[in-house]
């Protein structure tokens, strides 16, 4: 309860501004809004016209966006409501992690794990946004507990299927990991167990396909879906160079160095601890899933959020690993025999707690910004009944009236949807235009840039965005 109270206290003071609204979060909020209004889990590119690629725009997963649509129906629509909804998932995360660690590692280790999780900065960065990482991790823990400790293969399959439906890119790897764990360890009645597990997970995955694939019978849709998930970073992306650059990050990035060091005692304990020999299913899952997550990160553009599930698992396992090491040290060094094992563990955890707390308060890169709210206020005061052109800004488009917005989305350098508002005939240009600042990385063609300079004047730059007014 103390952890939850602390999280709520820290969150409500800057609920809509820290962290600033994220690109994928804007997509998720609009998907939920459109499902509430139109029954379509997709984003609008113009009034009545959807993107047609909900497997990209809804990559967070229906388990997050569809309940959010219901939340909007009851409590109204807005960023405040969306962030309160995200806090609900964060509270569930702490309840589930406490339950899991208490059942698996014991009361003392569970309190220690919660202390580390409560001060872990990326948890607040992802957990206070409407994204799928935290909901998916909660289902992952519940599913693995029921699978490995209660032998509930069907319900465990359902829960891990829900995890995959929350964030397919990273939690579908958990399904693969469980299948490998069962194949390696569960020799007796293996095929029956696999069948029961897959029978539980399959309907959840099928639901994701139903919501994410607009036309299940279209070969073109399936070609696009396979193309996106085989390379979500776009054409021309070099996996080899990304792997090389991401490996280098482990030698200079503080977060990667920190978690590499934290993983060492866990890996050491896995080798010789009797406790983890007994917990061999969980140990195998940690190693296999951790390896798959690591590979997925290495082939990415260096996005650390892909490592979040592995980081959370490390913080969960670490106090128990420290406990095992403390017991071993006491047996090897008589000078430590009189020191309580719990005192040794508590001291180590307190040190890590202090490091993370200092990082959270003073050094974390959880950026705060009111730019979304300021741009929306400016647009509201200037637009009147006119239509609004938006270029690649789902953080803004999500909150604009659906009957007024025309959104050109560059989801990656291969998937581009909507009509570029700058390339319309001069008589059909929008009175108001919103596009990202140049440093946000948007690539604008020379024709579009020429049209912008000829027809529009900048009225205000706000944070990540520029707002332009059509010249008379």
Automatic annotation (TrEMBL):
GO terms for biological process: lipopolysaccharide biosynthetic process. One of its GO terms (cellular component) is plasma membrane. It is a multi-pass membrane protein. GO terms for molecular function: pentosyltransferase activity. The lineage of its organism: Bacteria, Candidatus Sungiibacteriota. Keywords: Cell membrane, Glycosyltransferase, Membrane, Transferase, Transmembrane, Transmembrane helix. It is found in: Cell membrane. It comes from Candidatus Sungbacteria bacterium RIFCSPHIGHO2_02_FULL_49_12. This is Glycosyltransferase RgtA/B/C/D-like domain-containing protein. The chain crosses the membrane at residues 55-77, 84-101, 107-124, 131-148, 154-182, 194-213, 250-270, 282-298, 304-323, 343-363.
